[in-house]
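I am sending you the entry underneath: sequence plus fold tokens. Let me know what the token row says about the fold:
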Amino acid sequence: MYRFLNRARIRRGCDQEETIRHLHHPGPVAGARTVTAADRPIRLNFRLDAGERVDHALARGFEAAGCIGGFVGFEGGTCAPFQYVIPAASPDDGHAAWYSAPLTPEGPVDLRQCGAIVGLRDGQLYGHCHGLWHTATGLCMGHMLTPLCVLTAPVMAAGFGFRNATFRSMPDEESGFTLFEPTGGSDRGGAPSALLLRIRPNEDLCQAIEAVCEAHGIESAEVHGIGSLNEVRFADGRQVSSYATEILIRHGRVGPEGQGVRARIDIAVVDMSGRVAVGEIVRGDNPVCVTCELVLVPT
């Protein structure tokens, strides 16, 4: 059900006006377009063991470090069984987009690059994971159903955890989904705090990151995370014409440029037909579809 109805106007400088794609969601538009929580990052390195469900392995690694939320990436290893979904049209008017039926590849699945935002759902640690994997039919991507995926070969996970801040699963009135939202945190001295960040629909991914960094005095940072975009525009001119996508940030950085900061984000993306694309995206023309869940770590 295609609900990208108009293009919202945004200002650029003194006399320039550009437009950005706008996806209509069923609920009232929230006032704050980004949500943040600050906390000191704990560097994580742990192994996801063969025989473990992916959700259990992620929770175990965070619990061992005393962390209640964060981000980890992992690549390598295999899973069987394995299930995932890709974006799809909503079956009703309750959401702007939805998910496909679960896809179940035959045989072992080779994990190529995965990223998981870990937070609390129903009081338990849970990993929201997007990634790239190789199946018998080739390279695929989507939203991994972590409780239904079992590792058949170990893989190392690395990232950043937090002991006071987390992503908490909460009903979101605007989109109609239950989504991770940053909450808690502590910003008391010591090492520079990292930010847990959620970006709401229809905000440009790069510009929202830049605005948050400037508001928090961050001049340089790594950007980690996952989310969804309303179509994709790459820096080399390629386009993904799907109003619902799932993305994984493969490489993301913020650094000083001119009078402010500039975000450079390289993603992997899957569209509603299952096509996969990778590359650096254009700043100013990549609006969030439903949500983006990110961790910004000052460098």
Q: What stands out?
A: Residues 1-18 have pLDDT under 50 and may be disordered. Residues 54-64 form the longest helix (11 residues). The two ends are 42 Å apart (CA to CA). The helical segments are 54-64, 205-215.
